[in-house]
Amino acid sequence: MAAAAAVAAAALLVAGFARCGGSAVLDGPPRDADSKRAPDGDVRDATGGAPGEGGGAGQPGGAAAHGGLGDAGCEPGLARCGSDCVDLAADSQHCGACGAACGANRQCVAGACACAPPLAECDGQCVELQQDMKHCGACGKQCRCSCVAGVCDGGCPPPLCMCGGKCVDIGFDSLNCGFCSHPCGQGEVCNGKGSCSFECWHYFEWKKCQAEGPWNPYCAKLATDPSNCGECHHQCAPGESCAEGKCVAP
């Protein structure tokens, strides 16, 4: 009986083993070459993580396994600002850095704020060179009365300005006093300084002459004005000039 019991015990012991490559190993959960068992008994993979757990970039479950997203989950080339993924090179609210907003009339170009076309930057401001009186056609080029298509004063010689298709002196013109299309009131003159008043500037040199027809009076320099030479409405002959209030032949 004792011998039979020993044989049975031996059979049970052998059943607990399995043959593998000629070596007897304990039967149990299979182990592969890339797995190792941690001290707590859990199986770890070759990266040190449990199977299916995320490792570092380029490892199973890492950043590469999520489509190669860049900064904080944003697509490549974008950066996270708050809850948004933005292009710091082109976003006018985050130009070059999060929260760096461009001002009015500016856009973000290559991470720096610049004036949006057709505007140009002059003295730190975005201006329209085609019509800006202080920057007409180029930064710093100032006009007396108008800037049209980047040309000052309609091309009229100083001190005249282009108003209504003709060159006028806005210092004296009662219909364009001080600037184009600014008429003086009834009985007023454009006093020579571009202001409407009832007397001419330097009245001892300039005379208030009443215009013919329904027009306002005007200021004339009787000493040199060939249309009012010596007195109002005294017109010199064609080719003559007015000197000291007298018409002078050429």
| CA radius of gyration | 47 Å
Q: What can be said about the biggest beta sheet?
A: 2 strands, antiparallel
Q: What's the helix count?
A: 1
Taken in chain order, the helices and strands follow as: HEEEEEEEEEEEEEEEEEEEE
> Approximately how much helix is present in the residues?
under 10%
The average pLDDT score comes to 74
How many E-type strands? 20
Please give the order of strands in the largest beta sheet. Answer: 1-2
Low-confidence blocks of residues: 1-68
Strand-pairing-aware structural class: mainly beta
Using the alpha-carbon principal axes, give the shape.
Answer: rod-shaped
**Span between termini:** 161 Å
Could you describe the 3D structure shown?
Among the domains are: 74-117, no CATH class; 119-156, no CATH class; 169-250, no CATH class. It has 1 helix and 20 strands. The protein has one helix at residues 2-15; strands at residues 17-20, 23-26, 36-37, 43-44, 79-81, 84-86, 106-109, 112-115, 120-122, 125-127, 147-148, 151-152, 161-163, 166-168, 189-190, 196-197, 206-209, 218-221, 241-243, 246-248. A hairpin with a 2-residue loop joins β13 and β14 (166-168). The longest helix is centred in the first third of the chain and has 14 residues, at 2-15. The chain is rod-shaped, with a radius of gyration of 47 Å. The N and C termini lie far apart (161 Å). Residues 1-68 have low confidence and may be disordered.
